[in-house]
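Hi everyone, sorry if this is the wrong subforum. Our group has a chain we'd like a structural model of before ordering constructs, and none of us has done structure prediction before. Sequence below.
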Amino acid sequence: MIALDGTTLTVPDTPAVLTRFTKQAGNHGGTGYPQVRLLTLVACGTRTLIDAVFGPTTSGETTHAPRLLPSLRPGMILLADRNFAAQGLINDIAATGAEVLVRLKNGRRMPILARYRDGSYLSALGPVPVRVVDCEITITTTAGKHTGLYRLATTLLDHHRHPAGELAMLYHQRWEIETAYLELKSTILGGRVLRARTPRASTRRSTPCWWSTSCCGPPWRTPPAPSPAPTRTGPASPSPGRPPATSSSWPRASSPTPPST
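Answer:
Right subforum, don't worry. Here is the predicted structure as C-alpha cells:
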C-alpha cells in the first residue's frame, strides 16, 4: 500500500528563487518566504519515500501528481484523499496497473450500476469502473472522538475478496503520509527553509530513494511507551567452568501491549 499526498515547504527568499516561486498571501500578512509544493509517494507500512516531485504552489497537487505515475506498478494499492479524485487522474493511475482507493466528496453524485451485499455499489469515474463505499469512521484521540462520513471509491471491484468493511479499515493507512510529512518538517528540516542555490535545483525531480523511520502507529492511535533498557545489578559474568546462577539478576523487560484494532 502506498499513499499519495502533497505539502508545502519554504525556500530561500532570493531574487533568483522568486522568479520561480511566490510567497503565499493571507489575512495576517502571508508567508515570509517563498514556498514550494512537494508531492510524494510513501509506502504506508514503512513510510519509505518511493518518489517525489517539486513545483511552484501556483500549480495544484493534481497538476504535479501525473509526474509520479511512472513509479506505480501493478499490484500496488494507491491511497489518496478527495483532492485527487479527478476522473482524468484516476484513469491515468488505473492505466499503470495499480489499484486505487480514493476518498470522494460526500456530495458527489455517483451513478449506481449494481448493488452488492456488503453495502457497496458499482459505479464509474469517467471510463474507469469503481466500487463506492459509504462508511462512518470514528477517530479516537486523547482529546476525544470525532465521527465523520466518508465516501470511498476503489478499482478493487470484487466485493467477495475486498469487503466494504476491510476497505474502510484500509483507508486509515493513508494517514501514514501525514505523519511522514510531520517527521520531515520537524525532525529533518527543524523548521528551517530548504537550501538551494538556484530555483532549478529546488524543483528538480528526485531520483527514487528510500527513507524509513522507527516511529509507529497512525495519528489516531497512541503508541505504547517503550520499555526501559535493562540494567544489570548482579555480579559479573561467571568464571569459566562455573555454571550460571539459577536465578537471573537481569530484570525482565515487559513487552508493550499492542494497540487494539
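For your construct planning: The radius of gyration is 24 Å. Residues 175-188 form the longest helix (14 residues).
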